[in-house]
Amino acid sequence: MSKSFFTKTNLLTASAKRLYLSKNCSSKPVETPPTPQPVNHAEIHRRLHPPNNFERRMLVWTGRYKTLEDVPQIVPVDSIEKARNKIRIKVANWMILASFVACIFVSISGKRALERGESVTKMNEDWHKEMNKSKV
């Protein structure tokens, strides 16, 4: 490449630098923003919520308050969320227990039906026989 190419690019970059500096740099002094006042962050992030009747009952069921009358008119959202999570876990545990009991009951009743000679295939055959007889 020729020397003229390098000198032209150097000139372009130098002129681009001057243009950038003239647009973005000013001779005005920079003003500093005022210092912020100290703030209690716990108060800012603490959201309050008026609980409805169901949320009041959840707060009592989880032991957060003794009675429905003890629940204040405005409660932090965090306490409602904690109560909701505890209720959700309790319901899930009870559903697991109910499923386990139902499985045991179904297996015992299936074994008893097998001892009596009942099966799904036999019931299906009987049903088809009745249907074929009714068609004729």
Automatic annotation (TrEMBL):
Q: How does it sit in the membrane?
A: Single-pass membrane protein
Predominantly, its location class is membrane
Q: Which domain of life does the UniProt lineage start with?
A: Eukaryota
Keyword Zinc-finger applies:
no
Q: Which GO terms describe its cellular component?
A: membrane
Output the Pfam families linked to this UniProt entry.
DUF1075
Q: Which UniProt keywords apply?
A: Membrane, Transmembrane, Transmembrane helix
Which spans are transmembrane here? 91-110
Q: Does the keyword Mitochondrion belong to this entry?
A: no
Subcellular location(s) per record = Membrane
Family designation: Belongs to the UPF0389 family.
Can you name this protein?
Uncharacterized protein
